[in-house]
Design goal:
There is one protein chain. This protein has 132 residues and is an alpha/beta fold. It has a single domain, classed as 3-Layer(aba) Sandwich (Rossmann fold), CATH 3.40.50.1000. Helices cover 28% and strands 10% of the residues. The protein has a 4-stranded parallel β-sheet with strand order 3-2-1-4, with helices on one face. The chain is globular.
């Protein structure tokens, strides 16, 4: 899937323009989603230096995005002909109706097969913390 993910309030606590504290299991879950073949788009209100800081913050925590505020990396943004909303199969944002669930719940919803009973050492927490 192509998944658009907000930054403030979703990956980190909302402290814009500063970068808030990391939400529990956010980066671990994002890395698992990437390992499973999903393409992630950073979809943020941020721009300029604040956006650059968020991208670098994510990079330092092991997540590089397929695209940033674009539907695909080569897209040229033209406010007259291109919508700011990116094209994605799914959007993860703290402004969802009902708020944002925990990253563990998000992962389980996106990868339900990973939540079924499996032999010891293959469950969510093992996958979450497996660096291989």
């Amino acid at each position: 899937m192509l998944i658009a993910i907000d930054f403030d309030g979703t990956i980190v606590e909302h402290r814009f323009p500063a970068i808030g504290k990391i939400r529990p299991f956010a980066f671990e879950s994002l890395k698992l989603l990437q390992r499973e073949g999903h393409q992630l788009i950073l979809w943020s209100y941020r721009s300029g230096k604040e956006l650059e800081a968020a991208v670098e913050f994510c990079k330092q925590h092991g997540v590089q995005f397929y695209s940033i505020n674009k539907s695909y990396p080569e897209e040229e943004f033209d406010a007259g002909t291109v919508s700011r909303k990116v094209h994605a199969d799914l959007y993860i944002d703290d402004r969802n109706l009902g708020g944002i669930p925990s990253w563990g719940e998000i992962y389980q919803q996106l990868c339900p097969d990973q939540g079924r009973r499996k032999p010891a050492g293959t469950g969510f927490l093992t996958r979450l913390f497996n660096k291989g």
